Structures are given as structure tokens and as C-alpha cells.
Amino acid sequence: MKELDQQGLRSWIDDRADQHLFSGVVLVWEDGKPAFTHVAGHAHRGHRVPVTLDTRFQVASVTKMVTAAAALRLVERRTLRLDRPLIDFLPPEYRPASLDKRHTLHQLLSHTSGLANYHDDEDETWASFISAWDRVPVYHARGPRDILPLFADLPAVSDPGVFLYGDANFVLIGVLIEWVTGKSFADVATEEVLIPAGMSDSGFFQIDLEPRNMATAYLATEEPPETWRSNIYSVPSGGMPDGGLTTTATDLARLLDAIASGSLLQPDTVTQMLTPHGFDEDSVEAYGYGMELVVVDDRVTIYGHGGADPGVSTMVSHYVDSGIAVVVLCNQDRGSWATVQKITEILGLADPRE
After folding, report:
1. What is the arithmetic mean of pLDDT over 300-306?
2. Would the pTM of this model clear 0.90, i.e. be above it?
3. What is the mean pLDDT of residues 275-290?
4. How far apart are CA 157 and CA 252, in angstroms?
5. How far apart, in whole angstroms, are the C-alpha atoms of residue 194 and residue 245?
6. β-bridge partners, 25
7. Which CATH number fits domain 6-45+55-347: 3.40.720.10, 3.40.710.10, 1.10.287.70, 3.40.190.10?
8. Residue 182 region, left (φ>0) first, then alpha (ψ -120 to 50), else beta?
């Protein structure tokens, strides 16, 4: 790894935190251990509780890596199939109205189902996402089946095979996992992924129970920071399969290691997970199974996932050529991407994402 100006980077992060542009944990991971760590900001602003390396964060769509791994473990045991119609597995009461024999788990994992999402991903504010909880209150959103009414009656937005990122795909994966196992999604994800990957500080918690060491997440605004609101009324109370994981930076690095080493999934399954199945037009970015990919000259150079929710800004990236992973977790809804860009600049890591 290129020599890292640790003091310069720490000062830069601290300055961002002083300006309320960042609050969280920064981790650079290499050869199975930390090469750089730094924390800044507050896990709870009201009580002035500082962030530590042990602080657990809501990580939004970074969760999809765990959900995909859990589903693929069930595929390896032939409990599920990637290419069989979903209607062969799901009973009518758990099927969206537009689901038909063309739809498969492969499409859900790769965002190529064409099914409608439960909020507008094109909305650059949180208005569409938060308005979903007017229809299903957050305190009733405890598991994936609770979210199903938000999109069950919507018409499909395209035929299967077209890439269109949508959280509903992964909500439906959670419903599917619960039905075929007879267990809660949280229990299956814990048994199949969190425990085998050594993610001992992670879980799919009911956030209104205030899990130990969990950072409160804040909606960043242009108003004075002391007026920023927590996200307790802006995200589901339960740990959802599309974005409900609470975890630490170290645990996410362990997850990447477990996937790369083949200790969590069989090598052929890892290959499928990291194969581009859906592409953003006019972009270097693609999607595997629960993995955001960067493809340069027909080769995957970066894999991982980002996450954005009200009060949440996260980035997890594994740089293939260097073997370095960068994990940035932030308990406000801005700050992670600028930090990743600064680290890659200092380390000389090629990252063509804008």
C-alpha cells in the first residue's frame, strides 16, 4: 500500500467533523487487519457521546450484501433456486400482483425483475422514502412482510431483464427467505451470514429498543446542527433485508474477507455474486448479486456497496488490484463519499466513480 499520510488524513477528517460534514468511523483494511482507523463526531449529539471504533451504525443498502449472501447460502443447499419462477416458492398472499412465471431470484438479486419499488429512487430528497411511512407506520414495519403492502398492488415498471435498482427486490427476497425457512429474516441472516463471517457486533435489530452501542442517525440540514432530527420516524423500526443491518466497520471488513476467501460461499457462488448482471447505462458501475461493481475494460476492479437513508451515509469498497478495503460509516446523511474520495486520492487507488 502506498504510504498513507495518517496525520494529514486524521486532521482532514477532524476538520470535516468540526464543520458537521462528517460523523463516524473510517477504516482502511489490508491483509485481514486495520491499516488505518479514525473516528470523529458524536454517536449521540444530545448526550455528547463520542463515536468509537466499537460504535454500531445503521448502514442502509450495505445490508444488501448480507441479504444476498444469505439467499445464496440457501441456493447452495438447494432450498432456493436462482432460475426457478418465484411463484413456485411463494404463496399467493405473498406475491406482488405483477409477479408471474418469468420472475426469478436471479432477477431480484440483480435488480433486473422490473417490479415496482415502494418509493421513488429518482427523488433526490427523502420525501418519497419518508412518505412511505404514512401508509405503513415505522412502528408497524418490523419485518419484510410488513413492507409488502407498499408495492404489492403496483404494476411492473418493465419486463424482466432490465436493470432498475429498487429496494423492493430485496424486501421480496426477505419475504421469500422467511417463507421457505419458516424463520424470521433476521434469524436466518444471523445464522447464515453474520455468525459464519465473524460479525459478532452486527445484527438486524428493532432500533426503537436502542441496541447497545448503536449510533443515533441524524438528518443533516442547512439549519444549525443542534436542530438536526434523528431518523427514528424516517426508517422502519425493524431490520429490513433491503437496508436494516446495524454493524461496525470492522465487521463489514470481515464480511468482505469471508466472501473473498470462499469461507462463506463456494467459489462458484462468489464468482456469480461478483459477475455483472445489471448495468447502469453510460457508467462504469454495474450490479452483481447484492454487490455494486465497478467495471473497467470488462474487468471488475471494485466491489462492495454504498448505503444512503435518512441519517445514514455509508460506503464499503474492496479494491481488487491492491486488496485494500475502505469502509466509511457515517451517522448523518452526508459525508461518506467525500471521505472515500480523499482516501483513494492519498493511497493512489483508481476509482473512476463520480
Report:
1. 98
2. yes
3. 92
4. 33
5. 10
6. 39, 329
7. 3.40.710.10
8. left
